[in-house]
Amino acid sequence: MSRRLSNPSYLNSGKQSLRRRSNRYRGSDGFSHGSPALRRFVLMLGLGTALVALMGVLYFGYRLGTTTEFFALDKIEVLGNKRLSYGEVLDAGRVRLGQNSLALNLSRVEALLSKNPWVKNVSVRRDIPRKLIIQVEERDPAYWIRRGGSLYYADENGELITSVSPADFRSLPVLEADAEMRERLTELPDMIRALDNGAMPLSRDALAWVRLSGAGQAQMFLDNANLTLTFALEDWRSELRHVRLVAQDMRRRGEMNRVRRITASGGKVWVDRTH
């Protein structure tokens, strides 16, 4: 009668031998030598170390570049300024000779310059290693405008620039516009160009004042000709074409210097002359 062996000793010794051989290939941290997990861990550790080293090198290079005298500004070039002086531009941008070119925040310099009411557009760039270039586009004053008891400079579209002061005085035509007509101020440059064609002594420099009234009319007084021009705003291009034709006819007949008032409305033109 056969007897069944349970848990034979030779099998147990074999299993123990296999476990011992298997454990020889497993580290104390649970990673098997040469396993994908271990390789990923080593790779990430290496990348992290390299990244920290690179950041250290970049920081050291930045600190060196922004403190060395090699990048100290020895020339600041300002272009496009007409009204603002060289010194006013530098003061407004808070830049000066000797500053480190790399340490300058160019966006901040542009933002500071843009706060000046005379600056319309500005760009700032470096010319490595020691030069800074500031390109300015200034706003051009075309009129005086009275607002709230104060007198202001305004551009050709009637946009306020800054208040008129004794230290910054320039004689310009006075511009008046009723509240409901202010949105039409942007059309003024085209009106002036339409009239400045040689038929009439009209240019922006010849104007003494301009008025846009709530009645839908534009009035312009030409100081050099002692002439007042009035025309309807509803279809001002057509009205000014008629004015040009009449002015050309008056000039051909040598009577333009006697004209004191021209009024255009509804496609008709009236002329008042001295005797």
From TrEMBL:
Chief place of localization: membrane
Entries under Pfam families matching the protein: FtsQ_DivIB_C (PF03799), POTRA_1 (PF08478)
Biological process, per Gene Ontology: cell septum assembly
Cross-referenced InterPro entries: Cell_div_FtsQ/DivIB_C (IPR005548), FtsQ (IPR026579), POTRA (IPR034746), POTRA_FtsQ_type (IPR013685)
Cellular localisation: Membrane
Residue stretches of biased makeup (Polar residues): 1-16
Record GO cellular component, one term: membrane
Location of the POTRA domain: 71-139
Stretches for region Disordered: 1-29
Keywords noted in UniProt: Cell cycle, Cell division, Cell inner membrane, Cell membrane, Membrane, Transmembrane, Transmembrane helix
PANTHER family per record: CELL DIVISION PROTEIN FTSQ
Name of this chain's protein: Cell division protein FtsQ
Species classification: Bacteria, Pseudomonadati, Thermodesulfobacteriota, Desulfovibrionia, Desulfovibrionales
